[in-house]
Amino acid sequence: MEKKSFTQEMSWLHTWSGLIFGWLLVPIFVTGAICVFWFEISVWARPEVHAMRVADPADLMEFSEAYLKKAAPDSRLWRITFPATDHRDPILTLNWLEPDGKLAKRTFVPDGSGAPVVTSTIGGRFFVNFHYALNILPRETNPVGLLLVGLASIAFLVGVVGGVVVHKRIFKDFFTFRPKAKSRQRTWLDAHNVLSVLPLPFHFLIVFTGLLFFCYAYVPSGIATLFQGSESAFLTSAATSRNSEYGDLSRTEPGTPATGMPLRTLYDSALPGLAPEPMGYIVVRDPGRNNAAVEFFGTHHHGIYIVNTPRVALDGSSGEIVRVMQGRPPVGTAWDTAAGLHMVFFGGIPMRVLYLVGGMAGAIMMATGQLLFTIKRREKTVSPSKERFFTVVDKINVATIAGVCFACVAHLWAIRLLPYGMADRPIWEVRMFFVAWALAFAHAALRPTRTAWTEQLAATAMLCLGLPVLGFLVPHSNLFEMIARGDWKTAGVDLSSVGFGIVLAMLARIVSGKRATQSLHKPSLIPA
Amino acid sequence: MTTSETSNTDLSNPELKSGEPWGRIFARVTAAIFGGYALTYAFGTAAAKVLPLQPSESVFLISMLQILVYVGIVIWVFAVTGKKAWTGLLVMSALCMAVALVV
Fold first, then answer.
1. Which ipTM score applies to this complex?
2. What residue ranges do the domains of chain A occupy?
3. I need a surface site. Which of A34, A234, A396, A522 has the fewest CB within 10 A?
């Protein structure tokens, strides 16, 4: 074999790993971009919490304490998660540890009335589960999904480095866009380059921080050496509180029954230690015993930190402050910052919109690369066997680019349309995603390539445009009423869907080639 | 490589490689994915022994470095010829394991 230059090796790697892993990465980027708004989608999916008043934390605390005392007086652990102060997650969640070690869960609307949240739905959570583990969960028992996404992310980073090497004239390329170019290939190549170079730092950041999120699980050499392979021992140690400082619950005995101080009183003494954050949740260990320990945690709903939120622990019987923690050691803090940059809980709606746009740009960038693969090679074509291969590539491209968008909206339709009383409703919501995606694959296999593109884009556009209409069938979800109430975060889900629908409809029209009649000598962007 | 007026960038040249035997490609991809994983793991084990941090801090630091190490290894495997790649992976892994055992 003749030795090839580094540039040639990198370009080969960029092309092939881009093609193969792109089929995974485009769906990951699409769902990842959507799940920037997963809390908003979760609210949108639960009509009973739309635009609901959030009661004062002190009142919610009284209600929660009374409820838990009645429901789980002998439990060894309670957890009370408060509705987020910016109404992003307007749900009061009560958990307690059952004698068999399982965590019980009840959810309530946030107005203090004690009415339960009744809609059984996965909300926006599926998009999260898919983009980090292809919904193959739990990762502790089956890490295949996590590892595949990890490998694809490594391939992405390699592709970025390789892509930069390939583009020696990266700066000049950035200012080169020739939509009226004679060659279809050149138009797509320019689009690919512009979409790659401008958001490159963002894409590198989002994939790298995404990898950091479960970095200890992909190559668990550190945990194997320092924690005898126990991930939970590592996580406990990393959180530096909870179990370690009050003793592991499995190893200590509960104390004797005692009255203890009400949470509300403890909250008043804890509040200054939480500043500048408002309270996010409370963990009570051995409630109603003389060794009760109550820890208040700051919210992670608007700062950059996910784990490093301030926390104040008090003795449940005397009310004395046992410990105040702000942050963690430097590397743990660095990790938390990376995780926070990925989760984008900071910066409010404008920042999240930027992330959404950045993520979508990444998906489009990779999609243009996928298209280039066959367009570039077809123009020189070639043998029948290669032609067959290109056809298969084209069909997979249709299903992994247009098809996955179709499946995402179909999933949202399922969330709106499945009967509310249905058993296993969340499972069926997820199944509808995969059913729709399988349909997209079958459709792409059966139809000619360009027709498949047009039809799938048009179908997705129609589902997107129709999504707000479904709100009229469901209580509290009428788009006009939501706007009149000023509930823009929930209405935003419907409005964004309409926005995407318009863009997709335009795309479908361009791809269909109807526009090409206006300039006959210009080739259509998608080969017939 | 000369850049002509029409070629914007020299993206992949598949025809160059299409004559290449699949066996060689397979060997190289295997070296990158599995050989690279093994070396990354060995690197992490050695680093876990060497780093003077508290255990949880060590694990975070190692795990973050491992991602960059893995990316670097994959690029390196494709940049050198097949034989060199396997030799390099083996030597480096052995070195890391030696460090891990000695320290």
1. 0.84
2. 6-47+126-215+341-518, 53-118+241-327
3. A522
